[in-house]
Amino acid sequence: MTLGLVLHLVVWHAYHGAEESAFEHATLAFETANPGVSVELVAVPFGAYSYKLEAAIPHGNGPDLFVGKSNGLQEWIDRGLIDAIDAEVDPSQFVSGTLPPLIHHQRLYGVPLAFKSVALFYRRDRITKPPRTTDELVAIAEREHAADRCGLAYEAASLSYHAAWLHGFGGRILDDNNQPALDSAEAARSIEFVRMLANRHLIAEEATGQLVTDLFNRGECAMAISGPWFLSDIEADVRFGVASLPIVSSTGKPAAPLSEIEALMLPARSKTHAAALNFALFLSGKDAARLRALEGRQTVATAATWQLDEIKNDPVLTAFYDQFKLAVPMSQSRALQASWEPGQRALRRVLRGDVDAKRALAGAQAEIVATLRPAPPPAAKLPFAISLFALGLALLWWRQRAQPEVAFRSQPVAYVYLAPAAVAMGVLVFVPFVVGAAMSLFDYDGVHATFVGWGNFGNILRARDTSLFSPLSFYFALLVTALWTVANVALHVAIGVALALLLRSPLLRLRGVYRALLIVPWAVPNYITALIWKGLFHKQFGAINALLKVCHLEPISWFAHFWTAFAANLATNVWLGFPFMMVVTLGALSRIPRELEEAAALDGASAWMRLRHIVLPLIRPALLPAVLIGAVWTFNMFNVVFLVSGGEPDGSTDILVSQAYRWAFQRGHQYGYAAAYAVLIFLLLVAQTAFGRRMSQKQAT
Amino acid sequence: MKPSLAIRISIHALLLAACAITLYPVAWVVKTAVTPRQSFSPSPNPWPSTWSLSNFRDVLGTHQGATWLFGRQLLNSLLVSASVTIVGVVLACGAAYALSRFRFIGRDFSLRGFLLSQMFPGVVTAIPLYILLDHLQLLNSLAGLVLVYSTTAIPFCVFMLKGYFDSLPHELEEAVLLDGGTHFDAFFRVILPLSRPALAVTALFSFLTAWNEFILAATFMSRPASYTLPVAMQNYVGDFSTEWGHFAAGAVLVSLPVMLLFFALEKHLIGGLTEGAVKG
Questions:
Q1: pLDDT tens for residues A74-90?
Q2: Most buried pick, A96, A153, A512, B5, via CB within 10 A?
Q3: Cβ-nearest to B151 among A10, A425, A538
């Protein structure tokens, strides 16, 4: 092998576990068969996957090939991120139905690897024959419920799971022209059906993926709805079967889940299309597909593989195959993305019993239309330039007036100290800031940018298309954010200072141990602890409700009401944030000479007076910057809100920054609109800090 | 002045309660990590029913060809975080000293600038930052990550240190200047040694900023061997399912060095000052 001739291919994927190792082994087989090519597989975390693709490909840093999903296709094509496959691909090579979702304007955009849809899992020790109709399903669930178990566990509040019932009742998410069509009587009936299941306690409440796994493994639930990914979560000693979802008894139609296709796609501008395609075809070939099916438990898209005895006789894989034939392919369109959040919200409202299905769906429909509303009209540049200039002048005049120039002798040596930090900040913070802020003046979806001047700001500030008090409105989110910031900072400081004071005495035994234990929340990555807190607040299985039950109190449905959901977010963030204030306070306290207090004590000052008049004033200067900056961080604390309440109920606990995120990534990629949100957040924070500073100066004098 | 027994008992009771609340969710992470499964049981009891190190073995044993991935990624994380700590604290020290001790044109502007930089949400700046790093040829390099994280950490460090420097009496430096020393002498010989508690807090903060971040690292780095640990841990989280056992074991492993760091810094963090200097 001559090294210089080896062609190097980079392939990105987001697989993990068995799927990843099967993918690796199939790749090894390719390298053995093609000694002139080496393939480097790069596992990219799912959370950063599409983001990374969108950043890298336009700048020529993308891979040679990546594993993508059919439902993002239209957007990727619109944004020029992927190229069509020009080679002849024989359709009979693939399971029927796996190619059309990858075709756009008669061109193929991916080599299908696998199809994914959910199906019904059932425990064989509970159920001998899986239910064929929803009536049978209800009967089994009733029987299980009578035995103090639950019948069915699945993520009922997720639209991707509910879609199966929606289709079974004759409804759909988008109509033939890809327009939102959620406000149908059929859709309402499908939600009422699930509501009936919930009311009769036949399905697990507030089920998340983790809960479904746990209930099924422990035998608390006899049935679960999930996809092939569930296979690796089921424990070895559980005997289970997989079947198609039942037929909806009232319509006679099968409950048809959504399906999506995983495919190898060619990034635009890569120069290795031919070799990459060769690899893609190898991986979708019979042998590689067999490996992926057997080792990775993938439901592969390769037709020939399903003829093999070992695959044909695998009851689990064939059950998914049968289910796929009934499934509805997920639309490539952006309208589907925009339907997701409102549809899901409507579903949750009905399941909580807040409103009837019809009204919830009508609301969802209006919300989808509002999200997809036309962009602001293009603006002329001259009037905008004039208004910007006038604004600049006004600002300058105001600053001039507010702060008359003080004459002082400048000390140039200061610049030597300041310059390194200032330069680094200038380049890496200021430049992206200006670019980001400029984006707010455009209607920008990632590819096409139209100059709209103040249009985005106008839309936000006029709360266009939504009422002032709807959770979608800027003003509502602003109010929530203000409340969020004040409550958090107050509690951070109160708890942090209180604990620091308790830990202060050098005579305290185990002081070091306490200090080290109390800082732990700061050390553990907050992504995982936020999810654990979400679990603690679970209605049926959370520890907090278990504790309430011990105290003979009613369990609370934490994410069903604004205040309780807000409190759950608050508890999580206070837990995450108090160690920081505690450490800052401990640092400040260590510098207060004991003698000062001891003298005051000898003069007869009580502990409270010493705290109030000596300790607190002395730690104030050190705490103030921490509070100012803590307030800014809390204002923009995205993770906790997004992971714990996720905006529940009805998006009301979303703060401004999570709204901005949703506009950028969940509501049809309206980057310009999101950037305008970001600019407003910035301006608000500037005002908040100026105000906070003035208040503290006033207090100090 | 030793507090009475009742007060001491109540202090311990309060601290114990605080520790219990603090550690409860953490116990969960540990439980998930030592349970030889990938699922995540939400029962209220945080005590593990089975103990196994299999998750740790899996996480520690990741390989790519002959490369021991976990070791490489740990090394990357340590390198990046240590560099960020040094770069961030050094740059911030200078800036904070300038802002605390000197009058100069642009002082107010810079002071605000540092705070302002924290206010623009990252949702919109990440893509421009990517393009910028691409132009600077810093993509896919640890140096690029160090720069980005440093600029994230600097504003906080500047604020902490400036507040601290402000509280140190000017007489300390004046004495050095009178003895014929320069400002630099005063800064390095007097101010910095006196600022150990504040330096420890800022160092810890800078380290943590770099240690736990994964979105930017996952976006900027494109080889598993150049990933940092949090990126590798995020690989256990999928679209539909998450390997909770591996993820939790990873979280425990990622948190341990931070705990060690805290133990190491603790002495400086709390009691690093001679009382005489403050009384001035």
A1: 888 888 889 999 888 88
A2: A153
A3: A425
